[in-house]
Amino acid sequence: MLYLNEYDIRRAITMEDTIDAIDAAYKIYDAKQFQMPTRMQIANNENTLIVMPCMTTSAIATKLVTSFPNNKKHPTLHGSVILNSSKTGEILAILDGSFITGIRTGAIGGSAIRHLAKSNIRKIAIIGTGVQGLYQAIAACTVHPITDIFLYNRTYEKIDTLIDSFKEWIDYPVALHKTESVVEAIQDAEIIITTTTSHTPVLPNDASLLQGKLIIGIGSFQPNMREFPRELYDTTDHIFIDSHDAINESGDLKTPLDHNWISKNNIHEISTHIVHSSTITHKPDKSIVFKSTGMALFDTVVANVIYQKAIEKGVGIQLI
Known about the structure:
By secondary structure, the protein is α/β, with parallel strands linked by helices. It has 2 domains: about 1-100 and about 295-320, ornithine cyclodeaminase, domain 1, CATH 3.30.1780; about 120-290, Rossmann fold (3-Layer(aba) Sandwich). About 35% of the residues lie in helices and about 25% in strands. The protein has 11 helices and 16 strands. It has helices at about 5-10, 15-30, 95-115, 130-145, 160-165, 180-185, 230-235, 245-250, 250-260, 270-275, 295-315; strands at about 1-5, 35, 40-45, 45-55, 60-65, 75-85, 90-95, 125, 150, 175-180, 190-195, 215, 235-240, 265-270, 285-290, 315-320. Strands 1, 2, 3, 4, 5, 6, 7 and 16 form an 8-stranded mixed beta sheet that branches. Helix 2 (about 15-30) packs across helix 3 (about 95-115), helix 3 (about 95-115) packs across helix 4 (about 130-145) and helix 4 crosses helix 5 (about 160-165). The chain is globular. The relative contact order is 0.19.
């Protein structure tokens, strides 16, 4: 049994490897070659315990993760991933679930940019500069030569933490702009990425600031959470999701469906787009939306890739 902490995982896998693993997971999802129950969530106010099991033909994994968004002196996410053999059921590895959650969620955004964005995009905005904001920035720079990243956070002083960490990952020049408002952050951006757990929209209800852009929602994962404004749904003709469960899990989909702002005919699984290499027409007056709530299949595929690469590179601690 191998134990892999954050340091070991970073030695074993790159962000590009992780984005490739997410794309592989979408192909498994499209082929329905997996078993995955709806995630179990137990909440105490804003604090949440999430249990996410999944089985594929190649691996079995269960992720246990806690989300405590108001933590001040500790990380907001804590967790572990247990990887089992699909042949014998034995535990192969225990992995740092917080880091896997971070890097694989960043890779989900990176995959969306890879498949949905225009090829010449160079400027992105990130709303929410916590851990997930960092990984979204890294992933974006992995799939495109980003030149400018506009950063907004409710607590302005915390933007510096992302900037310091970002420089450890990306070795080419990227201009990182600290902004004092969401409008300032998004006005010149070609891609907008939201990474908050807000219960009210964090983007302005102004179509002129949203049109012609790729909007990626990563943060909201419960029905009472929303990052997207009403106006966004009138400006988009493509809404992509990472899994069907996202429709019921996120307020950014459930609320507009409940209010008939959109219909389910407007919503498409990105796996179908990726597997069939569909073409997207980018219109200057329309936005493209991708909404992710994540799924255990991602953790299972990514954890298995990490384990295989760790064995190849001889990293990690053998427990048994």
